[in-house]
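Hi F.,

I've been meaning to write this up properly since the lab meeting, where we talked about keeping a consistent format for the predictions we share between groups. The idea is simple: the sequence comes first, exactly as it goes in, then the structure tokens exactly as they come out, then a line or two of notes. No screenshots and no reformatting. I'm using this chain as the first example so we have something concrete to point to.
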Amino acid sequence: MKTLVGSMGEMGPAEALYAVAELQKEVGRREASLVRAARQSGLSWEAIALCLGVSKQAVHKKYGKQ
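Output, unedited:
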């Protein structure tokens, strides 16, 4: 991710947009993995929501059934 972000200034607009889309997918995968790990280690939905800067309801809606 670092390499991709660092090289975005050298890309054309279409390439940079593609890179942003790929970064968003990767961030989503990482976030889901970290939320699962946090739940398995005993963190509450409220604590996870606080870390992510969203409401408890939002994080539970997004990840509660996984």
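Notes:
Residues 2-63 form one domain.
The chain has a mean pLDDT of 90.

If this format works for you, I'll send the rest the same way.

G.
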